[in-house]
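Q: I'm building a small set of examples for a reading group on sequence design. Run inverse folding on the following structure and report the sequence directly after it, with nothing in between.
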C-alpha cells in the first residue's frame, strides 16, 4: 500500500514542479497557487506513504537508500511549505520541488521491498538521529537554493540585464535573510543529528566516534556550516561570499548522504539498496 501512496506523491510533485516552472515562464499568480495546492496534496500522500510503510515494516522507514531518498524528499517539501507560510516567496518552489522530484525518481528506481531490520538499527536513537539529520539537510537545501537564486539575481543586476528572471526572483536582501534564517535553524539540527548519531554509535559499537567515512564527512559538513555561521555572526558575511559558501556546504551534504554510501564502504553501508 505504501508504494501506491508513494507513486501518487511523485505524480503530484511532478505536476507541482511543472506548475512552478510554468509560473517562471508566464508569471501568473494562479500558477504559483496551483503549484502550492499540488505539492500540498503530494505532501499529504507522501506522509501517508511513510506512515503505511512504518506500519507495514514495524520500524522507522529510513533504513535503505530507497527509504532515505523518499524521506529526504518529504522533508524538503515540508520545509518548502513551512517557508511559504512565512516568506511568501512564490518562486522558491521552482528551485526546491525539482530537487525533491529527482530524489523521488531515484527512490522509485531502487528496490522497494521491506527487509528485516538489521540488529544495529534496532535502537531507540535511530529515529531521532535520522529525523534531526534529514531535517537539517532539508533546511540546508533551502539555504542552497537561496544561494543559487542570489548569485543569479546578483549577476542580472550587475550586468544590467533586467530580464524576466529579475522580476521573478526576490530582492537580494530577502534572499540573504532567508538564507541566514535557514542556516540558523539547520545548523543546530545537524549538530543534534551528529550528537544522537554518536550516542547511537556508542550503543551499537561501544565507541562514540569511529572515524567511519560517513562520520568523517558529516564532521566536514558541520565545520563548513559552522564556519559560514561564524563568519556571518562575527565578520558580518553577507551576499556573494555567503551564497557561495552555502552552495559548497550543500555539495558536502550531498556527498555525505549519497557519495559516501555509494563510493566509500564503512559502518554505514549495512543497509540494502
Amino acid at each position: 500500500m505504501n508504494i501506491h501512496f508513494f507513486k501518487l506523491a511523485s505524480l503530484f510533485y511532478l505536476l507541482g514542479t511543472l506548475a512552478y516552472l510554468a509560473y517562471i515562464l508566464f508569471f501568473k499568480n494562479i500558477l504559483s497557487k496551483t503549484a502550492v495546492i499540488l505539492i500540498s496534496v503530494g505532501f499529504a500522500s507522501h506522509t501517508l506513504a511513510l506512515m503505511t510503510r512504518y506500519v507495514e515494516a514495524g520500524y522507522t522507514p529510513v533504513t535503505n537508500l530507497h527509504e532515505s531518498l523518499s524521506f529526504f524528499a518529504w522533508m524538503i517539501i515540508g520545509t518548502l511549505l513551512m517557508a511559504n507560510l512565512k516568506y511568501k516567496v512564490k518562486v522558491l518552489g521552482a528551485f526546491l520541488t525539482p530537487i525533491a522530484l529527482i530524489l523521488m525518481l531515484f527512490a522509485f528506481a531502487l528496490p522497494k521491498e521491506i527487509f528485516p531490520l538489521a540488529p544495529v538499527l534496532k535502537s531507540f536513537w535511530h529515529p531521532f538521529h535520522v529525523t534531526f539529520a534529514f531535517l537539517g539537510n532539508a533546511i540546508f537545501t533551502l539555504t542552497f537554493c537561496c544561494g543559487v537564486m542570489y548569485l543569479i539575481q546578483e549577476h542580472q543586476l550587475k550586468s544590467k540585464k533586467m530580464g524576466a528572471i529579475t522580476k521573478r526572483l526576490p530582492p537580494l536582501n530577502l534572499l540573504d535573510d532567508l538564507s541566514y534564517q535557514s542556516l540558523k535553524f539547520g545548523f543546530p539540527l545537524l549538530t543534534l543529528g551528529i550528537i544522537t548519531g554518536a550516542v547511537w554509535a556508542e550503543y551499537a559499537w561501544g565507541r562514540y566516534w569511529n572515524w567511519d567515512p560517513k562520520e568523517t564527512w558529516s564532521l566536514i559538513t558541520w565545520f563548513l556550516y559552522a564556519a559560514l555561521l561564524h563568519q556571518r555572526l562575527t565578520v558580518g558575511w553577507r551576499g556573494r561570499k555567503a551564497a557561495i559558501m552555502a552552495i559548497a556546504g550543500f555539495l558536502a551534504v550531498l556527498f555525505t548522504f549519497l557519495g559516501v554510501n555509494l563510493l566509500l564502504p564503512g559502518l554505514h553501508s549495512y543497509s540494502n539498496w
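The longest helix spans residues 172-205.
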